[in-house]
């Protein structure tokens, strides 16, 4: 069975308040948080005094941070954005990761341009090599996530990133393929099919160092937000992926990223029902533990 000792989660989906994130984590019987947002900032953008106070609080609670969910090269940043923004994020992230003993940082390969337009692939490769070098020089593993970025266009795009940036590892998000078209293949009518999560996983699994758990249904079109579900209910093929991971001796961390109540991309967090988010996050974690117990 996959180890329940290596379960973590993006607890900012339960609350942006760190005390509540810790509370939700302990309610699940876990001792790890995948840090992303605390308050209104990503952890690498927090004011220094706020970060140090948060780090002390995590230490006092006995909470480990196995992963930084950074905003480096993410879906909100275009490839022609000022690279100095990325360098600044890197320079702030490294000492904070060292402070918390965190060894994995989630990055992306910058926002997708509309399909058919110039994706500036060589500039993406150049930036990803520079990002990876800066972290690996500090003993930190860079892990690219298959989100709404260039590498997320298909498993083949992700593998090209690995070829071009050999020191980089991967984070596999189980749900992201469900709402992205596979740009490596076409239907008879010239359209693109939805990605197959299990097929994507099988192609890249040897490079995966960390797994994010999301589940959802194919949206009606590419520009519509999918319906997120509890784990094992949607089309992310969680059982197949996790069973295969177990059979292939996967021993990394697994992080829940529910999106069920809190769509992390929501434009107005102040309008969110945070009690519902807290409750659904804890329930999601419990249902996921029950799911992996059946594998």
Automatic annotation (TrEMBL):
Q: Is RNA-binding a UniProt keyword of this protein?
A: no
Residue ranges occupied by any Xylose isomerase-like TIM barrel domain in the UniProt entry = 23-265
Keywords assigned by UniProt, alphabetized: Isomerase
What GO molecular function annotation could you give as one example from this UniProt entry? Answer: isomerase activity
InterPro entries attached to this UniProt entry: IolE/XylAMocC-like, Xyl_isomerase-like_sf, Xyl_isomerase-like_TIM-brl
Against Pfam families, the record matches this protein to: AP_endonuc_2
Q: Which residues form the signal peptide?
A: none
Isomerase as a keyword of this entry, yes or no, is yes
| Protein name per UniProt | Sugar phosphate isomerase/epimerase family protein
Task: Tell me which species this is from.
Answer: Luteolibacter algae
């Amino acid at each position: 069975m996959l180890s329940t000792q290596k379960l973590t989660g993006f607890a900012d989906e339960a609350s942006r308040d760190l005390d509540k994130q810790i509370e939700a984590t302990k309610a699940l019987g876990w001792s790890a948080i995948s840090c992303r947002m605390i308050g209104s900032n990503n952890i690498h953008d927090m004011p220094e005094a706020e970060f140090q106070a948060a780090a002390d609080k995590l230490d006092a609670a006995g909470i480990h941070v196995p992963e930084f969910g950074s905003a480096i090269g993410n879906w909100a940043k275009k490839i022609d954005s000022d690279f100095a923004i990325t360098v600044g994020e890197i320079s702030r992230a490294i000492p904070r990761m060292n402070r918390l003993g965190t060894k994995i940082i989630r990055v992306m390969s910058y926002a997708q341009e509309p399909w058919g337009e110039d994706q500036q692939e060589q500039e993406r490769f150049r930036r990803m090599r520079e990002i990876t070098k800066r972290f690996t020089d500090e003993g930190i593993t860079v892990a690219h996530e298959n989100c709404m970025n260039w590498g997320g266009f298909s498993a083949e795009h992700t593998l090209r990133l690995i070829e071009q940036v050999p020191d980089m590892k991967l984070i596999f998000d189980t749900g992201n393929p469900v709402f992205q078209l596979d740009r490596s293949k076409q239907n008879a009518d010239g359209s693109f099919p939805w990605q197959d999560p299990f097929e994507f996983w099988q192609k890249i699994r040897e490079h995966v160092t960390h797994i994010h758990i999301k589940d959802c249904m194919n949206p009606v079109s590419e520009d519509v937000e999918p319906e997120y579900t509890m784990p094992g209910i949607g089309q992310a093929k969680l059982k197949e992926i996790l069973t295969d991971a177990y059979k292939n001796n996967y021993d990394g961390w697994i992080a829940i990223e529910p999106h069920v109540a809190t769509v992390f991309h929501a434009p107005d967090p102040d309008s969110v029902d945070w009690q519902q988010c807290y409750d659904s996050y804890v329930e999601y974690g419990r249902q996921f533990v029950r799911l992996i117990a059946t594998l």
